[in-house]
Amino acid sequence: MALIDTIIGATGQWVAHSDSNATLANPMAWLRKTGGYAAVNRIIGLSIPFATRNRFSVEELRPGYVKARIRLKGNKNHFGSMYAGAYFLVAEIPGGVLTLFDLGPSYTPILKEMTLQFLQPANSDVTVEFSLTPEMVESILADADATGRAKFTLEGQLHDQEGNHVANSIAHYRVRKQGFKAEGE
């Protein structure tokens, strides 16, 4: 696990120090940004091959923030709009991404419960954005460091490419600190 932890840590630093608004007007900054996101998506694909097969991708990542996308292609239901499972996928994985890149690889995210409220069909790709404030990250770390576990909730709005609000998600996570031993053990 040490190698993957090092890779996750290095990738997190790489992405955190790249300019999320970089364009081809500044080729080196653009390469740093796109290469960083490619590395993040490769790590996700190695950990959860299902995500790659279903065209999930992280579009933007910085400390306390993630934006993810799921493609309509390959994820259509029986009447041509986004399949319900694809909504779930795009709303669930970012919690793990935030945990890994904001807390570090020593903290394992576990989804405990998730609800989706469908508002209207999506006939295009769907995106979602999540954030954790620095205070939330500090609280999660403090709880996990003290007890070996911490809870947090992410609420998201899913949008189609036209900006229509197509669904809401509420995900309850638990984080476990690897190797935690209570005092006196």
Q: What is the mean pLDDT? A: 88
Low-confidence stretches: none
Provide the spatial order of strands within the biggest beta sheet: 1-2-4-5-6-3
Number of helices: 5
Entry summary:
Pfam families: DUF4442 (PF14539). This is DUF4442 domain-containing protein. The chain is an alpha+beta fold.
List the helices and strands and how they pair.
Blueprint: H1 2-16, H2 27-47, H3 49-53, E1 56-62, E2 65-70, H4 84-103, E3 107-118, E4 126-131, H5 134-147, E5 149-160, E6 165-177
Antiparallel strand pairs: 1-2, 2-4, 3-6, 4-5, 5-6
Helix pairs in contact: 1-2
Pfam families: DUF4442 (PF14539)
InterPro entries: DUF4442, HotDog_dom_sf
Organism: Marinobacter similis
Provide an overview of this structure.
This is DUF4442 domain-containing protein. InterPro entries: DUF4442, HotDog_dom_sf. It is a single chain. The protein has 185 residues and is an alpha+beta fold. It has a domain at 54-177: Hotdog Thioesterase (Thiol Ester Dehydrase, Chain A). It is 41% helix and 30% strand. The chain is built from five helices and six strands. A six-stranded antiparallel beta sheet has the order 1-2-4-5-6-3. A hairpin with a 2-residue loop joins strand 1 (56-62) and strand 2.
